[in-house]
Amino acid sequence: MASTSPTSVSSDAPAAPARPWAAVLALGAATFCVVTTEMLPVGLLTPLRDGLHVSAGTAGLTLTLPGLVAAVAAPLLPVAVRRADRRQVLCALLLVLAAADLLSALAPDVRILLAARALVGVCIGGVWALAAGLAVRLVPEPSVGRATSVVFSGVAVASVLGVPAGTLLATAVGWRWSFAALAALAAGASLTLALALPPLPAEQPVRLGQLARLAGVPRIRRGMSAVALLIVGHFAAYTYVRPVLERVRGWDTGQIGTLLLCYGLAGVVGTFAAGVFAARSPRRLLCVIAAALGAVIALLVPAAASPALSTTLLILWGLVYGGVSVSAQTWMSTAVPYAREAVSAMFAGVFNTAIALGAFTGGRVSDAFGLTAALYVAAALGVSAVPLLISAEAGPD
What we know:
By secondary structure, the chain is mainly alpha-helical. It is built from 18 helices and no strands.
């Protein structure tokens, strides 16, 4: 790693907390809140479209916009807060998230809703930039892999509980109550973080120059590009999964929440399975994930005639995608252990840019050519990550 040099960790770093797993679970609760808030429009796409009288593509902007804002906030927020205690910053971000969710619930039109979603983007980027690499500071080294899986399990549990529950609540009493419920959850998560986390002063301040040097490392650059392609492909399809599922013969709209629940349960299994296998070779695991994801998404097109096959593919999709975040974060942190927060900030920025591009790409292709074309484009993007992942290992550092 010749492109950037190690920096010594601050000598005033705190000792491990007395209740490390409580702290880890609190971080998992925080990621659950931000991911549920970010992904909720996936389950509410049709109600949002109808309630605000906009097209499906415009409703999809409620996912695209926070992703774009998060992509900018992720690398910049650690620079802005410099040496501020990470516990205090995370608590503040969850309170801002609660306010944004409340504003979403009260939004009279799509413009106000998009403004609230932009504020959500700041919270998403900030939470992931700071929280993703904190497991190593909270638990003993042998437990870091499991703790990282718990932090990232917020992604999968959001799919299991958050998005399906929000979808069911919207069906019962309206989409605005889904956002209101998330506001209460985010406020509760802020309190949990304040009680469970120890003081977490910055190990070292993150600077823009450090981010630029990391971006120049060939392995990091190729790895980030591969992850971006994988995430763009996933969200080009997943953002519009509700309309895709509504096309399956024999299913009605009341079953969509249950199907997304099955997807999310598979994602939880995939997340923790990846925590085990990623410790051995995260890059190889990502290669398998990219190839499998592309195949599963493509097969959803002919599977529309079969509810059983569509259900199987949806579960496989959740299982495969559940391993993406843990594998990628483990790979990047291993590559630059001396700049964990900086590389986590970069990763969060790339990840959220890819979410936004994926939602945008899926929406534009779907509006212009239909859902089938969007699925095939998504599958091709996912598979195209494989050559980059292979070259990332072969290239010099």
